[in-house]
Amino acid sequence: MKINDILKRIIAYIQEQKYKKGDKLPSERDLAILLGVSRTTIREAIRRLEERGIIIVKRGSGIYINKSAETLVIDYRLETSDQATLIKDHLEARLMIIPVVVNCAAARAAEKEILDLQNCIVNMSRAIVAKELKLLAEADSEFCRVLAIMTKNHKLVRLVDQLNIGSEVFWEYFIKSDEFVNNVIFAGYVEIVNAIKRKDPVEAMESAKRNVIDACEWLSKIIDTPCTQIFGYKTKQNYINQ
């Protein structure tokens, strides 16, 4: 069964039950049984509904409706089951948003927030050693969220929260390579934090750009999507110099 069919069935269920904003949905397990599909399929559908602001997943609590049933509309033209496209979109959005956030964060960072960033890196290191995909994605999301909080701009915080949704699809490729996560992603995050500690917005932003481009170039070897197809530049240096 295609993912769009699952989305339609979940929306139909929400509408039939006349759920209101704030109501709690059945668990992933119960939804899978109810719809007769695997939990993996339900998890992907939940991720996409969360991306569109239809539901909110509260870790350790459950799945909650974010919109009343009568207001639910999904533009299925935006849906794709192509994982490579999902990752491309994630990287592209990350490159557009995170360097700008980092630039602003470096100019406004407080000492406690820098400590919070360092704690995120510690949690990321533990997740890498344990090969825990979920923990790695959560540490990465928290790192980006702390950066957004540093900007003192609540709109940027909400934007980064939206960007963080579904990041597991991005990380499940990277966690398989010790060399990559340690020498590219992990080292890149340390560079960003060091630039922020020096109150150097320009270098912090450039470090963030390099980090995403490095991820893209590494990923292109796996999913056969050249970096130039994603960002429209012939080389990493060409992009960074823009």
Would you give an account of this structure?
The chain has 242 residues and is mainly alpha-helical. It has two domains: 3-77, Arc Repressor Mutant, subunit A; 82-240, GntR ligand-binding domain-like (Four Helix Bundle (Hemerythrin (Met), subunit A)), CATH 1.20.120.530. Helix content is 70%, strand content 3%. The chain contains twelve helices and two strands; from the N terminus they run αααββααααααααα. Strands 1-2 form a two-stranded antiparallel ribbon. Helix 4 (83-108) packs parallel to helix 9 (178-197), helix 5 runs antiparallel to helix 9 (178-197) and helix 6 (133-150) runs antiparallel to helix 7. The protein starts with a helix and ends with a helix.
Summarize the topology.
Blueprint: H1 3-16, H2 28-35, H3 39-51, E1 55-58, E2 62-65, H4 83-108, H5 111-130, H6 133-150, H7 154-164, H8 168-174, H9 178-197, H10 201-223, H11 227-231, H12 236-240
Antiparallel strand pairs: 1-2
Compute the number of helices: 12
Q: Give the strand tally.
A: 2
Number of domains: 2
Give the helix level as a range of percent. Answer: over 70%
The strand line-up of the biggest sheet is 1-2
Rg from alpha-carbon coordinates: 19 Å
Beta-strand residue fraction? under 5%
Biggest sheet overview: 2 strands, antiparallel
CATH class of the largest domain: Mainly Alpha
- Looking at the chains present, what oligomeric state does this protein adopt? single chain
